[in-house]
Amino acid sequence: MTHAIVLIEAERDAMATLGGLLADTEGVGAAYSVTGDWDFVAVVHLARHEQLAEIVTGKIHALPGVVKTQTMVAFEAFSRHDLESLFSIGS
Predict the structure, then answer these.
(1) I need a surface site. Which of 17, 29, 53, 91 has the fewest CB within 10 A?
(2) Strand 40-46's sheet: what is its strand order?
(3) How do 40-46 and 28-33 pair as beta strands?
(4) Are 71 and 39 in contact (CB under 8 A)?
(5) pLDDT of the residue at 77
(6) What is the DSSP string of 38-71?
(7) Nearest 10 degrees: CA dihedral of 31, 55, 47, 19?
(8) How far is CA 45 from CA 1, 37, 40, 56, 73, in A?
(9) What local confidence, expressed as pLDDT, does residue 86 receive?
(10) Any long-range contacts for 23-26 (C-beta under 8 Å, 24+ apart)?
(11) What domains appear along the chain, each with residue ranges and CATH number?
């Protein structure tokens, strides 16, 4: 499984609708509006690494109001749940 974080800059006119469009996009597990240099963050989960270009450039970047994206592929996933499970082994 491939996980990626996609940072998205949006046109101001698209701010009200783009979050819902991102959330409805195939492969997007969650979409967040954020503060800072970027307007949205999409968390992408894909079965195959080869699907990443199709989803990011073919679907996300093609949404109305998307100005630019920056994609970061996750190498390893960590969560509090994973760490708690690791440290509870043998307890």
Answers:
(1) 91
(2) 28-33, 40-46, 2-10, 66-73
(3) antiparallel
(4) no
(5) 72
(6) -SEEEEEEESSTTHHHHHIIIIITTSTTEEEEEE
(7) 10
(8) 7, 23, 16, 11, 10
(9) 52
(10) 25/55, 25/59, 25/60, 25/63, 26/55, 26/59
(11) 2-87 (3.30.70.920)
Amino acid letter at 81? H
Single-letter amino acid code for the residue at 57: T
Using 50, 70 and 90 to split pLDDT, how confident is the model at 76?
confident
Tell me: the pLDDT tens digits for 6-52? 999 999 999 999 999 999 999 999 999 999 999 999 999 999 989 99
Do residues 40 and 10 touch, judged by C-beta distance below 8 A? yes
Q: What's the DSSP call for residue 3?
A: E
C-beta atoms surrounding 2 within 10 Å: 16
Q: Is the pTM of this model over 0.90?
A: no
Quick count: other Cβ atoms within 10 Å of Cβ 65?
A: 18
